[in-house]
Amino acid sequence: MAATIWYEKDADLSVLEGKKVAILGYGSQGHAHALNLRDSGVDVVVGLRPTSKSVEFAKEQGLEVKSVPEAVAEADIVMILLPDQYQAAVYKKDVEPNLKPGAALAFAHGFNIHYGYIKPTEDHPVFMVAPKGPGHIVRREYAAGRGVPVVVAVEQDPRGDGWAITLAYAKALGALRAGAIKTTFTEETETDLFGEQDVLMGGINHLCDLGFDVLTEAGYQPEIAYFEVFHELKMLVDLANEGGLNKARWSCSDTAQYGDYTSTVITDETKKRMQYQLKRIQDGSFAKEFMDDQAAGAPKFKKLQEEFSHPHLETVGPKLRAMFSWNNGPAKDQDEAESFNGKIARTQVQ
Ligand code: NAD
Ligand code: MG
Q1: How many domains does the chain have?
Q2: pTM score > 0.85 for this model?
Q3: Do 153 and 221 share a domain, yes or no?
Q4: d(CA 21, CA 289)
Q5: How far apart (Å, rounded) are the C-alpha atoms in residues 44 and 52?
Q6: Is 49 in the pocket of ligand 1 (CB under 6 A)?
Q7: Both 166 and 32 in a single domain?
Q8: Closest residue by Cα to residue 45 from 53, 61, 150
Q9: Can you list the residues of the chain whose pLDDT is less than 50?
Q10: 232 is in an annotated binding site
Q11: How far from chain centre, in Å, is Cα 314?
């Protein structure tokens, strides 16, 4: 079944006229949504904790900033862009009691609605506009006259205007310049978690570090191992992004291709493990494990962060990355700069 994809012509921005949109949170996604919507002519208020460092950043950008309860109280649409694990508590305490009758609730990831941590009453439209890229790219592309694609979904539609609001929001975000793919909260949530756990992070990250171990344990120099199992990944990913796996393969030698086709590393057992992980996502046990731990102050998460904070690859990583002159100056990418160093104001991205 072909996906439904919407573009600029499919949405009407006037649906948002006279409506106030509260953006809760001013992080990666929050700043991009608030600024893009504002620049598209939408009436935006940012809801933040009064103690948040982002209050000043948002104000410097000319945005109206209020406390979360105040922002919610005047909003017709409330977009919740807080970290997933804190959304339910903020919803109970600050959102639900202040929500106008019939106000729409919006998300950029389906986690809390899909797993039932947030249960809005039936009179509220519930929709999702989830960018397929980090917030800083969502802002950068908008400013350049382009857009980052989104996936969109409507979970509750009490008045029948759910899709019109969703697509208008996506248009104001700049996303319809690229396209919005129709999905559901279930599909977005489950596939997003699967991608993270099984391929993009849980797959690749472990594969690289394991490859490094195998080479160094076999007596090869760690510097050489780093280049072979890690550094070159970026070039292949860039090629694959441009032209798919075929282009990535085409650009490699016949020897490399033959090794790829005949490799026995990924086995039927790997597929079974992926299916097992998927089952834990589908039956909610992964979400429960994560959220229970977060509710207890995240002891397991913090222990894991510590345990994984010294990848074997990193014994030589800093030294080798410094050999590339373009790695030395200020971070090339705002996301990298900010999430890694935590120093550069998110709002400097234009
Ligand atoms: P983030 O961590 O960058 O920002 C979160 C913001 O919430 C910060 O401004 C923080 O100060 C604020 N905040 C935290 N706790 C708060 C509280 N208790 N009360 C009020 N404000 C609070 O988060 P993010 O990456 O922008 O993620 C937001 C949502 O967007 C999540 O649902 C995430 O899954 C989704 N999403 C993120 C990306 C991405 O690439 N970052 C992509 C698509 C969707
Ligand atoms: Mg994700």
Answers
A1: 2
A2: yes
A3: no
A4: 33
A5: 18
A6: yes
A7: yes
A8: 61
A9: 330-332, 334, 337-338, 340-350
A10: yes
A11: 25
